[in-house]
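S1.2 Input.
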Amino acid sequence: MNRNSQLARLILSFYREDPKQLQQLKLLRSCKIFRRWGVLYIRCQNREMAAALANACEVIAEPVARLRLAKKITISSKNTSVAVFPIDFSKMKA
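S1.3 Output.
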C-alpha cells in the first residue's frame, strides 16, 4: 500500500474544490515528495509521470508559494532531473 506523503496531501487538499486541477495532480499520489534546503523534490516512478507533472508546474507552484514551502521545485525520475522551477512569490494570486 502506497501512503501519500503529507506534502502531497497538502498540495492536493489545496485544490479539493477544483476537480479540473485536482485531476492534473492525481499523479502526485504515486510520487515521493520531500523538502530539503528550500527545495521541494518530486521523484516520479517514470519519465512520463515526471513530464506530466512538469506540464502542471503552475498548478503545483501556487500552493507551494502560498504556504511558503519551498523556493524551488525539482521534478525527477530515476535520479535524472526532468524539470526545475523557481517559485516566484511576487506573482501569487491575491
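S1.4 Remarks. The helical segments are 6-14, 19-24, 47-55, 57-66.
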